[in-house]
Amino acid sequence: MRSSLAPGIKLITSFSRDSWYRGFTLFLTFLFYTSYHLSRKPISIVKSELHRNCSNVVRPLNFTGSNNETWCDWAPFDQDNYQTLFGALDNSFLVAYAIGMFFSGIFGERLSLRYYLTAGMLLSGFFTSLVGLGFYWNIHNIWFYVFAQAMNGLVQTTGWPAVVSCVGNWFGKGKRGLIMGVWNSHTSVGNILGSLIAGVFVSSAWGLSFIVPGIIIGVMGVICFFFLVEKPEDVNCSLPQHHCEQDPNLDSTANEEIFGSPSHSLANGSIPVEPANEEPKAIGFVAALRIPGVVEFSLCLLFAKLVSYTFLYWLPLYIANVAHFDAKAAGDLSTLFDLGGIFGGILAGVVSDYTGGRATSCCVMLIAAAPMLFVYNRIGEYGLGTTIGMLLLCGGLVNGPYALITTAVAADLGTHESLRGNSKALSTVTAIIDGTGSIGAALGPLLAGLISPTGWNNVFYMLITADILACLFLSRLVYKEVRGWCGFYTRMRGFKEI
C-alpha cells in the first residue's frame, strides 16, 4: 500500500517556488529593518539614566563625591542644560539622517542593494556600539557622543530605500497595503525590542544598552551579504504585476487624479521612459519630484514623522517625569505606543486597499489622532490602565499614516504606471518621501527639547498642531479621491470636465 504524503510536506509543496522566494525576501527584509530600528531606540531609554533624581538613589558606601544633587548623573548630562544636550544627541542623528536620505536613494538605484545594505548595517553596528563604549572608556565629552550619533544617522540612511526597493521588486500592487502594513510592523517591533534590550542593562551598565543592539545589527549585515536576493530575475522567478489591468469601459480616474495622467506626464517629458529592449535607467531627483503625489505625501510625512519621532525619543522621559516610573518601567511602558503602531499600520493598509483611498485613510487617522493626543496628556497619568489604553490608541493613530506613506504609498508612486515598468525610480522616490519626513523627525525632538522646560502641555500642543498640518497637505488628494468615489471625473488634458 502506497503511503500518503506527510501533511507538512503537502503544506510545503502547496507553495510555488516564486512564493517561497517572495516570502523569504519579505522575512529577511523584515529582520533587517527591525535591526535598524532596534539600534536607534537605546538613546531614548538611557536618557533617564544619564540624568536621574539622585535624591531617590541610594549612595554607594565607597562614593567620595561631594555634589549631593547630581552625584548619580553621567557628566556632561549632570548640568541644568541636560535637556538641551539630549536634544543635541537626538538631532545629531536625525539631521544627519535627513540630509543623507536625499542622497541615499540615488546611491541605492545605482549600487547593488545587497552590498549597500550590508555595508550600512555593519557601519551602523560599529557606531551604535561606539556610544556604549563611552561608558566603559569613561568618556564625558559631549562631542564624542554627538559624533557617534551623527555618523550612525548617516549610515542608517542605507536601510529604508534599499529594503523598500527590494520588496517593491518582488511584490506587485495587489494587496500592497495589507502586505506592507504587516511588513512595516518591523519599525514597531524594532522599537519594542530595542526598548526591552536597552532596559535590561540601563540600570546596571548602560553601555551594553548600545553594544548589544550594535552587535545584533552587525550580525544582520552578515546575513544580508550571504542570503539577500535583490530581484526575481536573479533566481529565474516571475516578475510581479505592478499595475492591474483595468476595464476599458471604466475611467481610471482615481489613479489619474491622485497620481496624475500617464499621457500628461509623458507629454511634459517629466519622467524618462526607456524603450522595452533597453536596460532602464535611474531617474533623476527632479523627475521623481514630478511624479504627481510625491510632493504632497512627502510634506504630510514631514509632520506625521515629527509626531512619531518625538514620541520615539521623548516618551520614556515623559512617562518617567509625569507618571513617576523608574527608567526601566518607563521604557517598558513606552513599547505600548509601538505595539499600537503595529495594529495602526495594518489597519491603514487594509482600509486603503479596500477603498483605494491612500490619502483619505491617512487623513482620517490623523484627524482622530489630534484629540486623542490632547486626551492622553490630560488623563494619561491618572492610572496604569488609562496609560496603557491611551498609549495603544495614540500609537495606532499616529503611526498608521506614517507606516502607510513610507511603504505602500511610496511603492505605488515609485512603480507608477507612467514610468512604464522602470523600477529604477523606486529607491529615489522612497528616499525623497522618507528624507522629507526625516526633516520632521529631526525637528520634533529638537522642538520637544526646547519646549519641554516650559511644560509638557506645550509639547503636546505642538504635536497636535503638526497633526493638523499633515492633514492639510493631503486635503487636495483627499478631495479628488472623494470625488472619484462619488462619480465625478476630472478631465484629461485637452478635454472638458464631465
UniProtKB/TrEMBL annotation:
<keyword id="KW-0813">Transport</keyword>
<feature type="transmembrane region" description="Helical">
    <location>
        <begin position="425"/>
        <end position="447"/>
    </location>
</feature>
<keyword id="KW-0762">Sugar transport</keyword>
<keyword id="KW-0812">Transmembrane</keyword>
<protein>
    <recommendedName>
        <fullName>Glucose-6-phosphate exchanger SLC37A2</fullName>
    </recommendedName>
</protein>
<keyword id="KW-0472">Membrane</keyword>
<feature type="transmembrane region" description="Helical">
    <location>
        <begin position="142"/>
        <end position="171"/>
    </location>
</feature>
<feature type="transmembrane region" description="Helical">
    <location>
        <begin position="459"/>
        <end position="479"/>
    </location>
</feature>
<comment type="similarity">
    <text>Belongs to the major facilitator superfamily. Organophosphate:Pi antiporter (OPA) (TC 2.A.1.4) family.</text>
</comment>
<dbReference type="Pfam" id="PF07690">
    <property type="entry name" value="MFS_1"/>
</dbReference>
<keyword id="KW-1133">Transmembrane helix</keyword>
<feature type="transmembrane region" description="Helical">
    <location>
        <begin position="388"/>
        <end position="413"/>
    </location>
</feature>
<feature type="transmembrane region" description="Helical">
    <location>
        <begin position="84"/>
        <end position="103"/>
    </location>
</feature>
<keyword id="KW-0325">Glycoprotein</keyword>
<feature type="domain" description="Major facilitator superfamily (MFS) profile">
    <location>
        <begin position="28"/>
        <end position="483"/>
    </location>
</feature>
<feature type="transmembrane region" description="Helical">
    <location>
        <begin position="183"/>
        <end position="202"/>
    </location>
</feature>
<keyword id="KW-0256">Endoplasmic reticulum</keyword>
<feature type="transmembrane region" description="Helical">
    <location>
        <begin position="20"/>
        <end position="38"/>
    </location>
</feature>
<dbReference type="InterPro" id="IPR011701">
    <property type="entry name" value="MFS"/>
</dbReference>
<feature type="transmembrane region" description="Helical">
    <location>
        <begin position="335"/>
        <end position="352"/>
    </location>
</feature>
<feature type="transmembrane region" description="Helical">
    <location>
        <begin position="115"/>
        <end position="136"/>
    </location>
</feature>
<dbReference type="InterPro" id="IPR044740">
    <property type="entry name" value="SLC37A1_2"/>
</dbReference>
<feature type="transmembrane region" description="Helical">
    <location>
        <begin position="294"/>
        <end position="315"/>
    </location>
</feature>
<dbReference type="InterPro" id="IPR036259">
    <property type="entry name" value="MFS_trans_sf"/>
</dbReference>
<dbReference type="InterPro" id="IPR020846">
    <property type="entry name" value="MFS_dom"/>
</dbReference>
<keyword id="KW-0050">Antiport</keyword>
<feature type="transmembrane region" description="Helical">
    <location>
        <begin position="208"/>
        <end position="229"/>
    </location>
</feature>
<dbReference type="InterPro" id="IPR000849">
    <property type="entry name" value="Sugar_P_transporter"/>
</dbReference>
<feature type="transmembrane region" description="Helical">
    <location>
        <begin position="359"/>
        <end position="376"/>
    </location>
</feature>
